[in-house]
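We examine the record.
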Amino acid sequence: MQDVLVIEQPSAAVVALEPIRSRLLAELAQPASAATLAARLGIPRQKLNYHLRALERHGLVRVAETRRWGGLTERLLVATAGSYVVSPAALGPVAADPERAADRLSAGYLIALGARIVREVSGLLRRAEAADKRLATLAIDAEIRFRSPADRASFTEELTATITQLVARYHDAAAPGGRAHRIVLVAHPLPQVDKDNVGEKDAICQ
């Protein structure tokens, strides 16, 4: 089972987003039969099989094991991944694209950058897996609590200067056999949890 499967086909995205099928994907983190799922979810067996066939047809679930019970064969199905992400590629020409963002300081631009990461890295990963190779990536995830807006501004200036220096030191556009990499740095406020309503409140950084 993959950790994350990126869904790129529109038809597969439609199948995965249907509420019952989405629930089935979650239930199939561990192998289970249609009979077990029908009893667990209270869904008629015929209707459940219809949804399972759709998921299997789009590669979202697979057969993990078959068992013989008398003259019958029982199939145990399992999800093909622990979680799923719908690629912007599934939306075709209306997918988010940072090149179309006018304001590069906007939240919309940040979201478009994230969408491009999903689209590009999923494509690279698919080709790496086909070649039985590991895709070399780097991800850094950290949280920081600023004392004041002034500290946040100072941090931004220092971080920008540091990254600019590193890029200038290691970038070589003419290096034989070199390969270009994309570096994306983003920062956004963390969602604030409303303890009374057990939900998320709007987090606006002043």
